[in-house]
Amino acid sequence: VVVEVISKSTARRDEVTKFELYEKEKVPYYIIVYPNDLKAKVYKLKDGNYDKVDDFTNEVMRFDDLECGGTIDFQRVFKRFRK
């Protein structure tokens, strides 16, 4: 699982260059976090390509299909960015 936090200066690199790199390297999940929008886009590798799982704001993402498992609680992630 790779998580990137987007900023204006890194947006293109994270959304295009790294997206393609991680897809090529078969990283099972790629998560792009947009702190200003309080949103995360989650992508899952399927048949060699990333499929968008969903946009997350307050939900919990479970990684039950990974050997190590785990969860991300996006409500907690974005709590510090809320005003």
Write the layout of secondary structure elements.
Elements: E1 2-5, H1 11-24, E2 29-34, E3 39-46, E4 49-56, E5 60-62, E6 71-73, H2 74-79
Parallel strand pairs: 1-2
Antiparallel strand pairs: 2-3, 3-4, 5-6
Percent of residues in helices: 10-25%
Look at the structure and give the mean pLDDT. 94
Structural class, by secondary structure, is alpha+beta
What's the shape?
flat
Give the SSE order as H and E letters. Answer: EHEEEEEH
Q: Separation of termini?
A: 28 Å
Largest beta sheet: what is the strand line-up? Answer: 1-2-3-4
**Structure annotation, total helices:** 2
* Extended strand count: 6
Percent strand equals 35-45%
Count of the separate structural domains? 1
Summarize the biggest pleated sheet: 4 strands, mixed
Poorly predicted segments: none
Radius of gyration based on Cα positions = 13 Å
